[in-house]
Amino acid sequence: MDSNPAHKPGFFERLSSLLVHEPEDREQLMQLLHAAHQRQLLNADALGIIEGALAASEMSVREVMVPRPMMEVVDVQDSLQQVINQVNTTLHSRFPVINGSRDNVIGILLTKDLLRVPHADGFSLRDWLRPAVFIPEYKRLDVLLREFRVSRNHMAIVIDEYAGIAGLITIEDVLEQIVGDISDEYDFDEADDNIQLDQNGAYRVKAHTTVADFNVAFDTRFSDEKCNTVGGLILNHLGRVPQFNETITIDDVNFQVLRADSRRIYTLVVSRSPAADDSE
Description:
By secondary structure, the protein is α+β, with helices and mostly antiparallel strands. The protein is built from 9 helices and 12 strands. It has 3 domains: 48 residues, no CATH class; 118 residues, CBS-domain (Roll), CATH 3.10.580.10; 85 residues, Uridine Diphospho-n-acetylenolpyruvylglucosamine Reductase, domain 3 (2-Layer Sandwich), CATH 3.30.465.10.
């Protein structure tokens, strides 16, 4: 018996008591972890991270990467102003640098390095390249995460079995599979409202907003027979996932993609066309 009657078992003691019988497979392990959650030994966030980590050990890079057609790249022949325009448009911190073709990635540009460029005269992007890391598309995510940590690289170029460029993957892509979506200063995912008016007078709309709610807010008449959400409405209209900053016009409504990845849309900026505004 514990000589200290006031002693309260800690988290690991309580979890160990639950795991008296070692699980024989992953399914039993997950059952035990869910039981721990039900007994309030694990909160929902901790359980989600554990589940994400276990899933990452079975997922390949191919399942998470940004496909080759959706890669945001800069060309080694681009001028300094062209590169800056690309940075301002996409807001990415790293870019694969190609030489004429997406199949010919020759390095990685860190946008912070542009701050050290003394002047535009004589600028050569080739002088500012970092080495590109190439990985096979079937590498496991947990292995890649460990390599990212050791090498301190944040981006890798994915190649297929024929040594062609299949896509790219970042450390954020891997971490999001474990901890969930990582927000940044352009997100408003923590807000309760799906539709918000920002400080610039533009409407930001979450892609999971229902079509019915959108119709009420913007006095539109979009059908929700095929798609229940605004994101689904756009995907059905385009037949693909739109890219960052792409604008899609449906009837008289403009949807500008504020945030999306290779699989889904997160946030949109919505406006009405001038003709529609004048007619009201």
